[in-house]
Design a protein that fits this description.
transmembrane, mainly alpha, about 0% strand
Length: about 300
């Protein structure tokens, strides 16, 4: 990868590693549904003008059905699950559990891609890592198990959304797709957000966290990620999943005084090993770089 690709890679890794920390700050004063609705609204206000300037908003009209489904499985569902899940578990554990997403994708695609010994071993190691994280970090804590379960469901939803984008929405310009899904999120959740409007004074830290979630962790991160795909291909771009949990754990331990247990390190190591093995391309799938026309569309 060239310097620009490395810069985008590190940028996305950081921007998608800090949401779990920011969510913890935001839900101290704001309800989870208010946080998700606000995050979607802020991101839409950033992304839709970008799409308008590029003249790509029209692409949403013919694909509104797919975009609506994608909004449900890629933003509304997982964002709510993660935010409500973090009420019961640490931001560090949340980031680590989300890292299992590539393993889930490999499992879902086992019917269309060869399930080699390496991929099978990767699936086993990945889910073993989840077992270590959940079994030792929240063992005996029913609410903790509920929170971990919510986050794992979010990871599954992300995996389904990734496949949906590849198969049904690859022709929709990224800024329009991201703007459309975040706008739908804001519209759908607006009534619930109004019902849970904070009745007590909200600290500046909560409002700041919400603003950063919308602008940086959603709008900017999505645009940077799509540009990274154009420059480096989807396989290499997907490797940001390996770094996101490191950022999440670092912030949680440093600023939220969350514990760093040996099970956290061991579970994360198993998840990363599982992701690496389960996502290694077979010999017939080595060329994952986008075509020149696709790269130009994503980068443009």
């Amino acid at each position: 990868m060239n310097r620009r690709a490395w810069f985008l890679f590190l940028l996305v890794a950081v921007l998608w590693g800090i949401p779990y920390f920011l969510i913890k700050l935001a839900i101290e004063d704001l309800s989870p549904v208010f946080v998700v609705a606000g995050r979607g609204l802020i991101a839409a206000l950033v992304l839709l003008p970008v799409a308008a300037v590029r003249g790509t908003l029209g692409a949403l009209r013919a694909r509104i059905g797919v975009v609506s489904v994608l909004a449900a499985v890629h933003i509304i569902g997982p964002f709510l699950l993660i935010t409500y899940g973090e009420v019961h578990i640490t931001s560090s554990l949340t980031g680590l559990l989300i890292a299992v997403e590539p393993v889930v994708i490999a499992l879902l695609m086992s019917g269309t891609e060869p399930l080699t010994r390496g991929r099978t071993l990767g699936l086993v190691l990945g889910f073993a890592g989840v077992a270590v994280l959940v079994g030792l970090d929240v063992s005996g804590d029913r609410l903790g198990l509920l929170g971990a379960g919510m986050v794992l469901l979010a990871a599954i939803s992300y995996a389904v959304a990734t496949m949906l984008v590849q198969r049904r929405a690859a022709d929709v310009p990224p800024e329009a797709l991201a703007g459309g899904t975040t706008a739908i999120t804001a519209i759908v959740l607006a009534p619930f957000a109004i019902l849970t409007w904070p009745s007590e004074p909200v600290h500046a830290s909560a409002w700041t966290a919400l603003a950063l979630l919308g602008v940086l962790c959603t709008a900017v991160a999505l645009l940077a990620f799509y540009r990274l795909i154009a420059l480096a291909g989807s396989n290499r771009a997907g490797l940001v999943t390996y770094l996101n949990p490191v950022v999440a754990v670092f912030l949680g331990v440093l600023f939220l005084n969350e514990p760093l247990r040996w099970s956290t390190v061991a579970g994360f190591a198993l998840v990363v090993a599982g992701c690496w093995l389960s996502t290694r391309p077979a010999a017939t799938y080595q060329n994952d770089a986008p075509s020149e026309r696709e790269a130009a569309r994503l980068a443009g």
